[in-house]
Inverse folding.
């Protein structure tokens, strides 16, 4: 489970984001400059760390980080997402991680200290733990998707799997589970001053690429071969405009998530 993510490079880059000028800075460069003045790789990493860690565990810093309340994707869903529970996918409570076999396996992605190191702006206490690898991959993935001009290119290029469908297919995520994740990512960005317009752009990009059932293959990052990206595969997930359901086989609109997972099993 190398995401439970995800942002779309070619949609969020300075050259392809809808409505953005061709010479406009990417979201990463724009907000790194706004928050920390100097648009360096180190500062880009700081911004990525703050946003990713907040998206996972909720508000943990007031610098600024508290402009908007964020529960975090590990927290139970609220409001329109009441009943959503993504925590078991991280805790290894069930066989939902794809390690390359015909069925999922149980993997604990909170084995590096859980929330405590994230509150200290770290991925994990042990960088070689499942948690350390997952969160570090999230930093690198978001760097590509948010268009970080330096960090993702020169410091930590994304080295994980490039088909988010393959990563998530045993989780059997539905529309509410994916919606909760996307909402928390958007709120995390907003908590550090990202504008409503930019948050909406990010949310739409996430939804269009990962949240549409049977969506065609896409290259994320752009250097990768086109791969299946939909992580929302249940029947209540909106159907992509040019669906390719055969490519997803039995994974598309498959059986519901196990009780206690995703949505509806609380």
């Amino acid at each position: 489970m190398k995401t439970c993510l995800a942002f779309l490079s070619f949609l969020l880059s300075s050259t392809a984001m809808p409505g953005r000028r061709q010479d406009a800075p990417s979201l990463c460069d724009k907000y790194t400059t706004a928050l920390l003045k100097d648009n360096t790789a180190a500062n880009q990493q700081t911004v990525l760390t703050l946003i990713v860690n907040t998206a996972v565990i909720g508000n943990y810093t007031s610098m600024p980080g508290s402009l908007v309340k964020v529960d975090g994707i590990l927290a139970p869903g609220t409001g329109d997402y009441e009943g959503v529970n993504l925590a078991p996918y991280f805790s290894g409570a069930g066989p939902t991680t794809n390690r390359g076999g015909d069925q999922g396996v149980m993997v604990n992605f909170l084995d590096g200290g859980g929330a405590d190191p994230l509150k200290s702006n770290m991925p994990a206490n042990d960088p070689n733990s499942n948690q350390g690898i997952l969160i570090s991959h999230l930093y690198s993935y978001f760097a590509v998707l948010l268009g970080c001009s330096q960090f993702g290119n020169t410091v930590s290029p994304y080295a994980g799997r490039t088909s988010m469908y393959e990563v998530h297919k045993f989780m059997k995520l539905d529309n509410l589970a994916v919606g909760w994740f996307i909402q928390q990512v958007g709120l995390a960005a907003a908590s550090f001053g990202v504008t409503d317009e930019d948050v909406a752009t990010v949310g739409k990009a996430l939804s269009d690429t990962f949240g549409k059932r049977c969506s065609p293959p896409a290259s994320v990052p752009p250097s990768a071969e086109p791969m299946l990206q939909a992580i929302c595969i249940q029947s209540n997930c909106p159907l992509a405009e040019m669906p390719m359901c055969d490519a997803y086989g039995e994974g598309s609109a498959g059986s519901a998530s196990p009780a206690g997972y995703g949505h509806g099993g609380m």
